[in-house]
């Protein structure tokens, strides 16, 4: 069963159709509104519906999913687990590059904001707080 079948939409479904199908199924299978005898079954279905929505509502993840389905691969897509899908989705080292870029920018700002005394912003604030 594909994620499209799970949501009850066609493979060419728009984002609006995906959202509408998700909302309808989420209301139907939410564990808080399930009959007591069906709570476990509805909880599992709710998780599947949520994972389908998270995959199909993100254009990059949807394209990757469609590519794998077209190639005949039926992967277990799980939004809550790190697995093969997430590794392929993330550009390798993207998070590290972003972190290093942010750190470099902070260091650059710190150097630029030094005043004539050669003090950083933090040092100036400590001096003001201590009344010196």
Quick synopsis:
This protein has 132 residues and is mainly alpha-helical. It has helices spanning 3-7, 15-29, 39-56, 59-70, 84-89, 94-112, 121-129.
Would you give an account of this structure?
- The chain is mainly alpha-helical.
- It has two domains: 88 residues, Orthogonal Bundle (Helix Hairpins); 35 residues, no CATH class.
- The protein has seven helices and no strands.
- Helix 2 packs antiparallel against helix 3.
- The longest helix is centred in the C-terminal third of the chain and has 19 residues.
- The protein is elongated, with a radius of gyration of 24 Å.
Keywords:
Helix Hairpins; DnaJ_domain; about 65% helix; J domain-containing protein; DnaJ_C/III_chloroplastic; 2 domains; J_dom_sf; 7 helices; about 130 residues; mainly alpha; single chain; elongated
Q: What is the topological layout?
A:
Blueprint: H1 3-7, H2 15-29, H3 39-56, H4 59-70, H5 84-89, H6 94-112, H7 121-129
Distance between the termini: 71 Å
Which percent range fits the helix content? 55-70%
> What is the structural class?
mainly alpha
Name given to the CATH homologous superfamily of the largest domain: DnaJ domain
Report strand %.
under 5%
Low-confidence regions: 78-83
Kindly provide the radius of gyration, computed on alpha-carbon positions and rounded to a whole number of angstroms.
24 Å
Please name the CATH architecture of the largest domain.
Answer: Orthogonal Bundle
State the name of the first-level CATH class of the largest domain. Answer: Mainly Alpha
Number of domains: 2
Number of helices: 7
Largest β-sheet summary: none
Give the overall pLDDT as a whole number.
Answer: 78
Rough shape? elongated
Compressed to H and E, one letter per element, the order equals HHHHHHH
Number of DSSP strand runs: 0
Q: What is the CATH third-level topology name of the largest domain?
A: Helix Hairpins
Region (Disordered): 109-132
Organism: Salvia splendens
Protein name: J domain-containing protein
InterPro entries: DnaJ_C/III_chloroplastic (IPR053232), DnaJ_domain (IPR001623), DnaJ_domain_CS (IPR018253), J_dom_sf (IPR036869)
């Amino acid at each position: 069963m594909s994620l499209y079948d799970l949501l009850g939409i066609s493979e060419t479904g728009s984002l609006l159709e995906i959202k509408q199908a998700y909302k309808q199924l989420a209301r139907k299978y939410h564990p808080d509104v399930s009959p007591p005898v069906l709570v476990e079954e509805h909880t599992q279905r709710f998780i599947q519906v949520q994972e389908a929505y998270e995959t199909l509502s993100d254009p990059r993840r949807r394209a990757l999913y469609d590519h794998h389905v077209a190639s005949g691969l039926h992967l277990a897509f799980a939004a809550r687990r790190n697995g093969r899908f997430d590794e392929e989705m993330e550009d390798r080292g993207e998070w590290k590059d972003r972190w290093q870029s942010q750190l470099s920018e902070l260091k650059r700002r710190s150097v630029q904001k030094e005043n004539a005394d050669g003090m950083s912003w933090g040092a100036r604030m400590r001096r003001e707080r201590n009344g010196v």
